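Minimal example, chain plus flavin-adenine dinucleotide.
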Amino acid sequence: MQKAKRVLVVGAGPGGLTAAMILGKRGCEVEVFEKQPQVGGRNARVTLNNFHFDLGPTFLMLKEVLDKVFAEAGAKSEKLLRFKRLEPMYRLQFDDRRMEPTTDCEAMKQEIARCFPGRENTCERFLAREGARFARLYPCLERPYHKLSSMLSLNLLKALPHLALGKSLYDLLNGYFTDPKLSLSFTFQAKYLGMSPWECPGLFAIIPYIEHHFGIYHVFGGLNRISEKMAEIATANGVKLHLNTPVRQLLLDGRSVRGVVLQDGREVTGDEVIINADFAHAMCNLVPTGVLRKYSPERLKKKRFSCSTFMLYLGVNKIYPMPHHTIVFAKDYRKNVDEIFNGGVFSEDFSFYVHNPSITDDSLAPAGQSAVYILVPCTNLRGKVDWTLEAADIRNRILDALENRGGMPDLRQHIVAEKMITPQNWQDDCNVYAGATFNLTHNFSQMLYLRPRNRFEELQHCWLVGGGTHPGSGLPTIYQSGLIVANLITGSN
Ligand SMILES: Cc1cc2nc3c(=O)[nH]c(=O)nc-3n(C[C@H](O)[C@H](O)[C@H](O)COP(=O)(O)OP(=O)(O)OC[C@H]3O[C@@H](n4cnc5c(N)ncnc54)[C@H](O)[C@@H]3O)c2cc1C
């Protein structure tokens, strides 16, 4: 009988857990090392007194990918988790109007007619055209690109006309919608990748399409429950999960990875090592100096990284009658975006996202109270802000904005628990390189074969999962990265 492959996984975020639970199911001997006391990484749970929050992801898209990876691990997501498809999906709050997009095409037409009279027929065109793009492009995200020849695959060749080369997401969709605010309603999703709609490649029109076609889901208890369940499935599949166990370095024999060195100095060997820790952080901290060429710390300085997020998690002793998700746009959204990505400053007039899940889910806070999370997209640590000096002032400005234009007029009086995370905290506490919460940007020069590859090109027996590798940042693509790596390691398709 063939000996089971020994696979070590650095990090129990969504990517690492996906790979671990599937490899465990397929008979590999898997050990996961996680530096934090809990699983989930950026998808972990935050608890303040009796209030429970998602640290990061709150939108579950393409639920079918989650269902697929659970099935690969021998589990059924519907049995283990309770989902709710949100309709309307979210509220978009502009300075002069607000829209609540829905996946019901007729209702969406009426909503566009109400907010942008005369443009109601644009939505059908968008769905038809972008549906075709999705059908061609999505299969390209399901496979690895570790060989140059993979760029000549039939799927990718068929997808070529759909790449919208030379067009930004905003340019492409403004072609249908023509009104700047309506166009923003279908392009702000570039922020899910931590990018500007004016720089994000047009092919990412598949993201608003995915929302409008497949919908957005909440998971009762928070999206962090997904990672918790994955850890349970992995353990049931024989995976050994070590919490509070940081990896200090990869154990190398030349350019071949033999295992890991733990923080306490212990060496653990394996046949294969999967890195789920933030890619750039791992390259700078887990690989001995001088080994890397393409992704050395010096070369990483020249790569492009996503924006960051300034976070407030608030336990509130009332429930605001606000939707589950609200995006509040800066009056001058383009200026705000430009200041995030080019100016490196925290805008006077900023956009923000309010997560108010207690309106849907009463398990997150004591009765009659709510767990509110605010996310403000902002410059990463390459910008000019000294977060230690400015955090308190920025927090106050965010609370002002919530009270004045965020639908929570008396918020300060009702806060009973609070936690703040700045870009500096993302880097220092969560090992996120440059506080760039959505990893390397998704420009053509950092995608597919040109993104750090699932079979890592710099080291042997080393594999990458998570937002920093192919197919990219965002839960469905991260789950897909875990499945791709599990397939490559076990030689499955
Ligand atoms: C604020 C925010 C909001 C987001 N919202 C959404 C959303 O709504 N929908 C969506 O689809 N995506 C969203 N994302 C993006 C993405 O889905 C998440 O960031 C996701 O958690 C990333 O998963 P990952 O597998 O790449 O790694 P991570 O979640 O970063 O996990 C990596 C793990 O590695 C561990 N680790 C690091 N270094 C070491 C070490 N040396 N030794 C051992 N362990 C180590 C970390 O502690 C962590 O647990 C959001 C991200 C953020 C930050």
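The mean pLDDT is 96. The CA atoms of residues 92 and 99 lie 5 Å apart.
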